[in-house]
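Teaching assistant's notes for section 4

Start the section by putting this record on the projector. Ask students to predict, before seeing the second block, whether Large ribosomal subunit protein bL25 will look compact or extended. Collect guesses on the board.
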Amino acid sequence: MADVLNVVKREQTGSTASRRLRLSGQVPAVLYGHGQDNQHLAIPKADVRLLLRHHGKMVELKGAVKETALVSELHWDPLGIEVLHMDLQRVDLNERVEVTVPIHIHGEPAGTREGGIFLENQHQIDITCSAGNIPENVVMHVADLHVGANLTAADLELPEGVELISPPELVVCTVAAPKGSQSDDEAEANIGAEPEVISKGGDGDGDKE
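Reveal the predicted structure now:
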């Protein structure tokens, strides 16, 4: 279900006007797409925070503009705390769109019970799907992941109608062996190996005078 954003049109644009808008508790935004003119909007910060909490991608605009839109980009402050600006793209619910969604890890990797360390290499993934069918996340099942193994984007569980854009070979997660540990092959190779002899003071090619 799409989040609702209550919008008003803003007459002034530019850095100074945007700063004043943010100080008043609003977030500046621009709505574009479908061959129509861009519209400069203002959205209450409370609506934006709710959208972020839901990880929403599709929104229903109400108030000065009544449109269905895709959140195409969020511009953050340098600390990544506050949204400074939003880009909204007009869409039809049936048209296919490209979006980035979070990856949800499901299960406990077998490798962690074997002493391994579970590492997430990717926290989100690029997909394409209809605008009205954007999932909140995609699932990666990790229960059968052992030490030294990894799972790639091709192993993600994608809902019906959702297709992967990111490279299928992209490593999403892995279970690494603990630091300083040896693989079984390395351990066996070292058993019974002759110790290296290091001579003292010289190369031993001749006797001292």
